[in-house]
């Protein structure tokens, strides 16, 4: 992926990693198109970054990806990068029969079906463009999960496997398939407390490392994994999975 000169669409770009990525890539000279559910937040980001474009978009709505793709094709025919970032998280407790399938269903709908629908709609737009890139946001928890976030971690493990298969299928096309696997970062993904949790990596520091990795082409096998997360990425191979799983699971 080139670091500049692209036309980029980012889902889930009104907060957290999505917004920070959008602003960082905008600063590098890209045409950035953001999407999100809340119009007020879209307006705020665009107001702070003149020249950005934005569309209200809910990945949970099965009919919206195709409709948005048609609008984007008409207004931004040079779209060559899709960043499928929209996702949600939530803790689940299945002890003593306390499990709630509603949370699991919401996570699967957004994190799995939302990504599949978005990629299906936009891949035909980018696949013949110069320097085409598909990047999706997974998680370091895809490799070593936290026991109190079972469906979230499983959704990211699904996404990792899905991207491996997609990368293989598209290996003879111009489309580069990348996977972003963030660690625990200071965002509001799991609530307001996460944004100030000292155990979490500061968001600006994370984005700075990711942008530098993209610029260097430092993503072996299409994976953007920080050096600090390599032990989790290779935990099963190195025989440390059980130890790391116990350390991060309450």
Automatic annotation (TrEMBL):
Stored SMART domains:
PKS_KR (SM00822)
Q: Does the keyword Lipoprotein apply?
A: no
Give the SUPFAM superfamilies listed for this entry: NAD(P)-binding Rossmann-fold domains
Among InterPro entries, the record links this protein to: KR_dom, NAD(P)-bd_dom_sf, Sc_DH/Rdtase_CS, SDR_fam
- A Pfam family of this chain: adh_short
Annotated Ketoreductase domain ranges read 6-186
The reply on keyword Nucleotide-binding is no
Tree of life domain: Bacteria
**Mind listing the UniProt keywords for this protein, alphabetically?**
Oxidoreductase
What the record says about family reads:
Belongs to the short-chain dehydrogenases/reductases (SDR) family.
**Name of the featured protein:** Oxidoreductase
């Amino acid at each position: 992926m080139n670091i500049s000169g692209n036309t980029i669409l980012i889902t889930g770009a009104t907060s957290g990693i999505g917004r920070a990525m959008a602003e960082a890539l905008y600063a590098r000279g890209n045409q950035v198109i953001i999407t999100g559910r809340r119009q007020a937040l879209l307006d705020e980001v665009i107001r702070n970054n003149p020249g950005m474009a934005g569309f209200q978009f809910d990945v949970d709505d099965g009919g919206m990806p195709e409709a948005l793709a048609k609008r984007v094709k008409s207004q931004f025919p040079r779209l060559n990068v899709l960043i499928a970032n929209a996702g949600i998280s939530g803790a689940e407790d299945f002890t003593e029969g306390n499990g709630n399938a509603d949370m699991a269903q919401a996570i699967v709908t957004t994190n799995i079906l939302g990504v599949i629908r978005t990629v299906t709609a936009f891949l035909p737009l980018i696949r013949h463009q110069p320097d085409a890139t598909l990047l999706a946001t997974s998680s370091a928890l895809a490799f070593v999960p936290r026991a109190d976030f079972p469906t979230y971690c499983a959704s990211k493990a699904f996404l990792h496997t899905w991207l491996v298969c997609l990368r293989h299928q598209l290996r003879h096309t111009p489309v580069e398939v990348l996977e972003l696997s963030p660690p625990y970062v200071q965002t509001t993904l799991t609530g307001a407390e996460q944004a100030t949790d000292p155990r979490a990596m500061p968001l600006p520091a994370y984005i700075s490392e990711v942008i530098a990795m993209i610029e260097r082409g430092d993503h072996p096998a299409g994976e953007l994994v920080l050096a600090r997360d390599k032990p989790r990425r290779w935990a099963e191979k190195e025989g440390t999975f059980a130890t790391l799983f116990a350390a991060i699971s309450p």
